[in-house]
Structure prediction request, 113 residues.
Amino acid sequence: QVQLVESGGGLVQPGGSLRLSCAASGTRFSRNDMGWYRQAPGKQRELVVHIASGGSTNYADSVKGRFSASIDNAKNTVYLQMNSLKPEDTADYYCSCPPGAYWGQGTQVTVSS
Prediction:
């Protein structure tokens, strides 16, 4: 059974940083593509970054240059480093592996002064 658990969300001021984590059991990030998604209040869920099993990444234009994803295969955990956060980054953030198949419960990120 696949389980994905996100953590690391919280309240941060504009310009601040957060690092989200997604820990997996029942699947291996080294063998599957995965994605980080977010859903803001009243909006559809959107892809933040797609990470191929080989490690290549594809970021949404809105986060390019500010967000960075990485994988720790030993811990079977994927991280999303979010820098220069903006109020429009406020959303619930989810990991999914394979993308669209299994989802975590989400972690809330609020960017506000």
